[in-house]
Amino acid sequence: xxxxxxxxxxxxxxxxxxxxxxxxxxxxxxxxxxxxxxxxxxxxxxxxxxxxxxxxxxxxxxxxxxxxxxxxxxxxxxxxxxxxxxxxxxxxxxxxxxxxxxxxxxxxxxxxxxxxxxxxxxxxxxxxxxxxxxxxxxxxxxxxxxxxxxxxxxxxxxxxxxxxxxxxxxxxxxxxxxxxxxxxxxxxxxxxxxxxxxxxxxxxxxxxxxxxxxxxxxxxxxxxxxxxxxxxxxxxx
Length: 237
Hints:
About 45% of the residues lie in helices and about 20% in strands. By secondary structure, it is α/β, with parallel strands linked by helices. Helix 3 crosses helix 4 (about 75-80) and helix 7 packs antiparallel against helix 8 (about 190-195).
C-alpha cells in the first residue's frame, strides 16, 4: 500500500479530509518506534509531564478516565499506576496494535466519541490536539462525555515566547528531530511533520476560549520545558 504523504511537495501542511488520512497513515507507520522516539525527542521528560498532568486532574481513587488519542498507551499506564480506570481511544489501528496498556482500547474518531453522556470523570489527551481536524468538535465531545465537575487536561507542544528559548526550540525540533527521525525511525517525513504541526494549534488564548465555549469552566494553562510544552486544564461546567 502506498503511504499517504503528510506534507505536500512544497512542505505545506494538509487540511480537512486530506489531513485526517495523512495523519492516520503516518501514525500507523511510526507506531512500532513511537515510544523510543518520544523519549529521545522529549529528552526523557515526557514521563514527568504526564505524571504532572495526572496530578493536575485532582481525581479521587478509581476514577474513570478517557485517554483520548492514547497512542501506545503511555498515559493509560500512568493512570493505572495512580489508581484510576482508563479507557484508551485512538483512530490509528497501528498505534492500538502497538499499545501495551492494562486498559480497554477503542478505535474511534475523537470528534464522534462512542460513549454516553457523563460516562467519565476525566479526559486526558497527550500531544494530539494539533492532529485533530475539527478541534471545536473534539472539545464539545469531551464535555459531553464528562460528568458535571469532571476534569479535562491536555498536553501539547507550543512555541516559547522568549526569543532565545524560541531559537533553541527551533534548532532542536525543526533541525535535530527530523534528522533523528530519518536515522532512528527511517521516517524523515513524519518527524518533519511533527514539529511543523504546531502551526495547527491556535494561540493559547484562543484555545482557552474554544474550551470555554465547549462547556468548560476554570480553564487554565501552564507551560513547561521553557515554554515548549503546554498543559491545558479545565472543569466540565
